[in-house]
Design brief:
355 residues; alpha+beta; 5-stranded antiparallel sheet; rod-shaped
Length: 355
Amino acid sequence: MPSSQSNIIALNNTPPSTQSFQGDVFTWQFFHEQAVQLLHATAQILLGIILLALSYLIAGPLSRLLIKPIDYMTDSKLVHLVVRRSISTLIILFGVYLFLRLAGLTEFAVAIMSGTGLIGLILGFAFRDIAENFIASLLLSIQRPFKIDDVIEVDNRLGIVKKVTARATTLVDYDGNHIQIPNATVYKNTIKNLTANPKMRGKVEIGIGYDNDIRSAQTLALAIANQQNAVLSDPPAQVLIKNLGSSTINFVLYFWVNSEQHSPLKVASQLMRELVNEFTKQNISMPDDARERIILTDPSKNVSSLEEKQPSQVQSEKSETVDQTKTLDDVSSDTDEIREQAEQSRDPEQGKNII
């Protein structure tokens, strides 16, 4: 026989006064058990709140402590930030789980934890491009194929690296334009770093007639290249025959410059001018398929016209000629100038550099 039924039978068989006393005891025991259960539930909820608050408070310091070993593997700020925030999020989620368990919502806690992973999966598909750029940013910050102010070429875009954020890499090209390339594109494409090795090779192509001595022309071109201060002696310059044209023997003068100090394009322009002038002096023909007859004016007329001008005009023209000569002889690199423009220009994208 169940104990509850035996208690009821025993209560029915007792006198009225005894029954009243036993009923009061039974009621008191019931309310006592309810109060104990309520206090126990309240204590569990308070403990859950304390654990939730504690997990929130220790998430930051504990995550910074746990990522200490990562300092020995990489010094990437972005990697440190992502790992630290991931650890902090896990600690806070664990505090939420403990709070729900202590509050008696175990099934709800399990549902939330399961839903967190499901939501993360859904968001991953929805923001696939953003996630791809973010992962590429992590890889770029770890591997570091380039640095800020490096000259790189990516996706047929040549420029100086101004900024690398969690979304895109900003280049400033030699026309002064700001170009933002998504980090996923940067990571997946070929990256040409022109600053990693400051030595850069330039070339000048020129053709001479078949009636000239090829070896003498090559020796003369090599001597002209070696006379230039911007041309490096190591690696040495070379003059190689490219092909045999219809009316010319075409050769290429290869030379090396320090791209941080000199511009290969400016040096090539100056070498081309010197080659043409020297070949003309040495009577080395440079024929072309389209021939022209050029009639030069009498130099004496130019002198007489110069004498007729006022001294002030002559002086101003001389100063202009000197300035133009300096401009023509300038072989300095444009990289530093573009870097200064990049520093002075408006930042097209807000965000911190990650490398």
